[in-house]
């Protein structure tokens, strides 16, 4: 552990830095707990929103290719930090997939 004070993140506003500098040890620990809980909450909300988006895609498949059964759903797969749409369906004990297109980042 360093004996020097920590360097604040460059993108943190000076108002926040000044406010935190004035806080007691206990206040800083409460702020840290709150910030961690808030970050976890926002991550969870983002995951739920993405799941809802994927559920909507799964509920309304349209424009099915001829070789994709009507029971197929549209899902999003992330491969090498890129997102793609795939048709997916169950065929016996196996899940089959067929590529559709890349996910448009503007959507």
TrEMBL record:
<dbReference type="InterPro" id="IPR046738">
    <property type="entry name" value="DUF6788"/>
</dbReference>
<protein>
    <recommendedName>
        <fullName>DUF6788 domain-containing protein</fullName>
    </recommendedName>
</protein>
<feature type="region of interest" description="Disordered">
    <location>
        <begin position="45"/>
        <end position="71"/>
    </location>
</feature>
<dbReference type="Pfam" id="PF20586">
    <property type="entry name" value="DUF6788"/>
</dbReference>
<keyword id="KW-0614">Plasmid</keyword>
<feature type="domain" description="DUF6788">
    <location>
        <begin position="57"/>
        <end position="104"/>
    </location>
</feature>
